[in-house]
Specification:
Chains A, B: Keywords: Ion transport, Membrane, Potassium, Potassium transport, Sodium, Sodium transport, Transmembrane, Transmembrane helix, Transport. Two copies of one chain form a homodimer. The longest helix of chain A has about 35 residues. The first copy, chain A, folds into two domains: about 55 residues, no CATH class; about 375 residues, Na+/H+ antiporter like fold. Helices cover about 75% and strands about 0% of the residues of chain A. Chain A has 25 helices and no strands.
């Protein structure tokens, strides 16, 4: 990681030379030490605030990061507030993938696939709408404030940067048990949205704005087509990646990656768990990461790829590994992701007081706050502009999941947080533009991220309690209307929850009626059938491994269910 | 990580700009992708060679790294063989700690503590002896070869560098089940030895050799005293770290680190497992890492600290966490360490063909091999010079563990491997000396590491089979003479293995006789009593958590026992 200048504010660093490390590494060591200590503190405080309805992990670590940053700032006599400078490479290559992977690994697949069309609609179309709105809005409003002298490319970049919602914070604010529908919608959208906005951003970076704007618009359309090309190509990548990850040894994955290296004999022979759980877990983790990196290298969206890897692995692979591997993977992936999330928010918090940037941007505090306010307003408008229309349009087509206004409001609200992706992208943009404009962008994005995460984030939870659960207790399966709830339960065969087999006795004469009443469920139903009939026998999965009730597997599952 | 120059040999890199990453990160992405793919390959091949008595994980990954390096070298038209340059900071801060921690976490504590005095004797005195021998020997022999023009400091550095055994490779070569005594001796020595040689190296770096040599020798004595100061100070650090890590929430640790922050109320209240396993595992891992970094900052030996952290955590903390946490920690720590070990050897293997270094060192191939041969000979002599004498001296004092000559031979042989620590230290040395001398040192240390790991490493396992198990099957408890075996078993109360309680019925009238016959065991016995009476009730541990036979805990333990 990049490091700030020599530290007069670390007395320890001077007494360092005798330690078991190279001399020049001393500063890194001190920074890392402080950082790890802060991480421990974050976990402790987050644990103490467990039952606090206002706070959550991200806010805690963000605020702790701010405190630490200001302390460092004081200690360094207003020279630098950064123990570790924000490094987008570190973020995109090492921090983000495990988090997204774990999200896919832990997501309730039933809900997710049931709302899949909705999620993609939100993630792609919605993001594009808010991108346009924020770009155009900032283009006109910035002149009012007096922050001008920016090119078209700059405003488009701003649009892409600020249309990237923060899925990490959403994960912590929404509860998968209480509101599964909202969770899957908002979170799933968040993942697709990240991918979309990043691709948009990169295309904006590549565009040349010296030509007339008609061509630019055309090129933006090209972006969009490219985006869909990406998604389709990604589909291939994901399927191959699933093919890579389902067999009990992830060996076929190695076939895919080192084609012709292995023969059918080894496939049959290779069952990692027999030898060691560690190797099994290691290969699962490495394959997932490899899929992300491969997607990046092949110019696909790594975020989507690794997310689907997580989904596929928890759907097939997870059921084929030894029992201890199951518990280990579940918890270790969750733990890693947990640590990294805390790390990121701590990071952003400490980076907020980046004194140099604030100095470089000659705009006054007043201007900064005005611009940030405008951006926040644009974010809210931009999100409102697609959430309510799309949801109401969807209402006409799929009538099983009626999303009433209160839920629409929550969906709108829960996507207002901006996070690390925004920061990372604005650092990337600032590197390509002048130092003044770059600093201007970074300071504003930091302000927006801080405000949205802390204020919006802390309000969200009470808001959900107030709006959704004021009248009624939440129904366990989510927000369906009780009438069709039972039918859908039967349709889904409840594979992701308890009784896998009960669906077998499902009277098939009722299906026809259900298909007419629930088109989406029907698609899901046939997929389910296909999955049970062909996929699972081939790739494994629940119901095809001996599942002894009362065995430690079920006990472990109990633990998991209790915890998640 | 540092990166080599622009890559003409990565066609993918050109097609990269559209991917979801900053443009300049493309090379890193490609390198990391290739590296992760290689890691997967290593695991696969290592798995296939599982039952091969000659190969082991380190050798496999080392050779794979060599192949990858040579391929890169060809692809780059003899320009560079390095995807990722060897970075000692990366090694010492991120790679080494988890490995050593896991070693302490998984080590059989009974064996380890029983041979503690022996281990320290080997690690400290032994290392110092071989350090002197190698330094003096190289000083005289290098002139014979014609490799002169080095200062005294250089030769002392060589002595420190090449007296650092490779504990990682030992872990994989020796089997803890088959030869527990040898394992605990050789491995425990390896850990202490790493610490010693690193401290020796750092002190040699700080010495000023323009004065007369009498003063230098005096200063070296100072080193030695400093070393012991370190060890004692370390004891304090470790005890505090144990105090940090034993309570069921590691909260008292946070008291130690953020003194006065928390009150007795929160201690009572704080039980992480209740809320989430993830937080529990996270805090365990972070606290251990924090102890390492703190030790580094305070100029203590981080390696020893984190090793004892691992021991303490598996002895106390591990028994206080939830059952799923237990399985998770056991396996995830092992997995992380496993991945990192593979990573390091892959790394060293790829770095071996560092063409620039070979060009820089103007010494001919012949000279290089002569020097490497001399170094290897010195390593063997230097180790023989303390293994056999010390073991025979020890034989006179402790008569329960009779180490016959065959075992002495194995102990001597198993410590001949040189590994990543040697490489890292020689890179450190080369940075301080001229590029020519630096290159000379690095090329030689690479040759020594490659040869010792591949040749010695592959021979070791068959050698053990041939020497130890030719006549007799191994006794499960190790290499004690069967006569006193039963007594010792009773003495130890077998806490680390099965029946914890059987020792309760131990007829105390036999103890006196045993104390006379087995002084070392007696010490261990009283520690055991103290531990049971005071430590465990206070800090928790086996026997003080409800242990239902047939519960998933015991099943999990079964799994663990089967795997390890």
């Amino acid at each position: 990681m990049a490091l700030p200048g020599p530290p007069p504010y670390f007395p320890l660093a001077s007494s360092f030379p005798a330690a078991g490390l190279a001399l020049d590494a001393s500063l890194t060591v001190v920074s890392v030490t402080v950082f790890v200590a802060l991480l421990c503190l974050c976990i402790l405080v987050g644990h103490l605030l467990e039952n606090n309805r206002w706070a959550n992990e991200s806010i805690t670590s963000l605020l702790l990061g701010l405190c630490a940053g200001s302390l460092t700032l004081l200690a360094s006599k207003w020279r630098s507030s950064r123990l570790l400078a924000f490094d987008e490479e570190l973020f995109f290559i090492y921090l983000l993938p495990p988090i997204i992977f774990n999200a896919g690994f832990q997501v309730k697949k039933k809900q997710f696939f049931h709302n899949f069309s909705m999620i993609v609609l939100f993630g792609v179309v919605g993001t594009f709408i808010s991108f346009c709105l924020i770009s155009v809005g900032s283009y006109f409003l910035f002149q009012e404030i007096g922050a001008t002298s920016f090119g078209t490319q700059y405003f488009l970049a701003i649009g892409a940067i600020f249309s990237a919602t923060d899925s990490v914070c959403t994960l912590q604010v929404l509860n998968q048990e209480e509101t599964p529908l909202l969770y899957s919608l908002v979170f799933g959208e968040g993942v697709v949205n990240d991918a979309t906005s990043i691709v948009l951003f990169n295309t904006v970076q590549k565009l040349n704005f010296n030509n007339i704007d008609a061509l630019t618009a055309l090129k933006l359309l090209g972006t969009f087509l490219y985006l869909f090309f990406t998604s389709t190509a990604l589909g291939v990548a994901v399927s191959s990646c699933s093919w890579a990850l389902q067999s009990s040894s992830a060996l076929t994955g190695l076939i895919f990656f080192q084609a012709g290296l292995v023969s059918a004999y080894t496939i049959k022979k290779l069952y990692f768990g027999r030898h060691s759980t560690d190797r099994e877990v290691a290969i699962m983790f490495l394959m997932a990461y490899l899929s992300y990196m491969l997607a990046q290298v092949c110019s696909l969206s790594g975020i989507l790829t690794i997310f689907f890897c997580g989904v596929v692995m928890s759907h097939y692979t997870w059921h084929n590994v030894t029992e201890s591997s199951r518990i280990t993977t579940r918890h270790s992936f969750a733990t890693i992701s947990f640590i990294l999330e805390t790390f990121i928010f701590l990071y952003v918090g400490m980076d907020a007081l980046d004194i140099d940037k604030w100095r470089q941007s000659d705009s006054s505090i007043r201007t900064t706050f005005a611009v940030s306010g405008v951006l926040l307003a644009l974010i809210m408008v931009g999100r409102a502009a697609f959430v309510f229309p799309l949801l109401n349009i969807a209402k006409c087509f799929q009538n099983n999941a009626t999303v009433d206004f209160r839920q629409q409001f929550i969906i709108w609200w829960a996507g207002l947080m901006r996070g690390a992706v925004t920061i990372a992208l604005s650092y990337n943009q600032s590197s390509s533009s002048s130092s003044k404009d770059g600093a201007f962008l970074i300071t504003n994005s930091i302000t927006v991220v801080l405000f949205s995460t802390v204020v919006f984030g802390s309000i969200t939870n009470p808001l959900i309690q107030a709006t959704l659960f004021r009248h009624s207790k939440p129904v366990p399966a989510g927000d369906y209307d009780p009438a069709s709830l039972e039918d859908i339960r039967l349709l889904f065969l409840e594979v992701d929850d308890e009784g896998f087999n009960e669906g077998r006795h499902n009277p098939s004469n009722r299906n026809l009626g259900l298909l007419i009443r629930h088109p989406t469920s029907a698609v899901h139903y046939f997929w389910r059938k296909f999955d049970d009939k062909y996929m699972r026998p081939l790739f494994g999965g629940r119901g095809f491994v001996p599942f002894v009730p009362g065995s430690s597997t079920s006990m472990a599952n109990e633990n998991l269910r209790l915890e998640h």
